[in-house]
């Protein structure tokens, strides 16, 4: 690879950023230095700058470094579906086992929601959906869960794309009604869909969030209406769904709770092992 003259510092900083992106679980200063074959003093200086600019964070307990808020913005805007699916898979299976119903993992694309993973129910009669299937955001629990945790400007763009087709007598068919539903979802932390897309189907969903509280996907439990009424589903399944979404968030962004090192760690306190 040809490097531009005078760009060595930038190249090194970008190499550090790339390393942090590949090791979101956290990496120690010495590990980064060894991987990039750079002096620890150089890596320490670069990390200090990256932390000041919020491209990196350091966990105050483990002393590990990971991606910071500036990188989270890029990650959440272009979440890697394969990583999301791999991270979420065991959590989805546990949620299915706990609820015995079909569990979905979804992401938004435009005004639609795409299933990226599904774990079938244990019952012969169940809700079906295959990875790659698309459903409308306005008529599904996962669509409402995702949009309720996106910036208002983006929500407005999506709503402007919608024509609000009615799939059943219970489908939301106006922007005003949809905005009110999103406000309610944001307030309670989960979304409910009662026969809004398919007659006889009920579902409940919670958003998977990035460290800034923006949705990157949603976890959903879907089931036949004859087995659940809305009150029972919320009472018994809402909390497990919210916990599952929160666990996937924690697995996707393991250092999200770390505080950016606005005040550099004293050099003698930095462990370079």
TrEMBL record:
SUPFAM superfamilies: GAF domain-like (SSF55781), Winged helix' DNA-binding domain (SSF46785). Residues 7-69 form the HTH iclR-type domain. PROSITE patterns: HTH_ICLR, ICLR_ED. GO terms for molecular function: DNA binding; DNA-binding transcription factor activity. It holds the Pfam family HTH_IclR. It comes from the Bacteria. Keywords: DNA-binding, Transcription, Transcription regulation. Residues 70-254 form the IclR-ED domain. GO terms for biological process: negative regulation of DNA-templated transcription. Transmembrane segments: none annotated. This is IclR family transcriptional regulator.
């Amino acid at each position: 690879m040809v490097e531009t003259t005078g760009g060595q510092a930038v190249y090194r900083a970008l190499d550090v950023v790339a390393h942090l992106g590949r090791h979101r679980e956290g990496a120690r200063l010495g590990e980064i230095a060894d991987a990039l074959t750079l002096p620890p003093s150089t890596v320490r200086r670069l990390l200090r700058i990256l932390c000041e600019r919020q491209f990196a964070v350091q966990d105050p307990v483990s002393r590990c470094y990971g991606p910071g808020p500036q990188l989270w913005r890029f990650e959440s805007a272009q979440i890697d579906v394969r990583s999301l699916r791999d991270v979420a898979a065991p959590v989805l299976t546990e949620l299915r086992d706990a609820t015995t119903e079909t569990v979905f993992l979804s992401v938004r694309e435009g005004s639609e929601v795409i299933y990226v993973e599904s774990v079938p129910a244990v019952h012969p009669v169940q809700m079906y959906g295959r990875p790659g299937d698309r459903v409308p955001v306005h008529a599904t629990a996962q669509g409402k869960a995702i949009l309720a945790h996106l910036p208002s400007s983006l929500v407005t763009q999506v709503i402007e794309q919608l024509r609000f087709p009615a799939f059943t007598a219970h489908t939301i068919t106006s922007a005003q009604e949809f905005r009110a539903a999103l406000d309610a979802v944001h307030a309670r932390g989960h979304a409910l869909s009662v026969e809004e897309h398919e007659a006889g189907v009920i579902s409940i969903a919670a958003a998977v969030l990035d460290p800034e509280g923006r949705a990157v996907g949603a976890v959903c439990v879907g089931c036949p209406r004859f087995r659940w009424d809305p009150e029972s589903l919320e009472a018994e399944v809402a909390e497990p769904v919210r916990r599952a979404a929160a666990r996937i968030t924690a697995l996707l962004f393991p250092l999200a709770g770390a505080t950016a090192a606005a005040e550099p760690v004293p050099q003698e306190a930095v462990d370079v092992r």
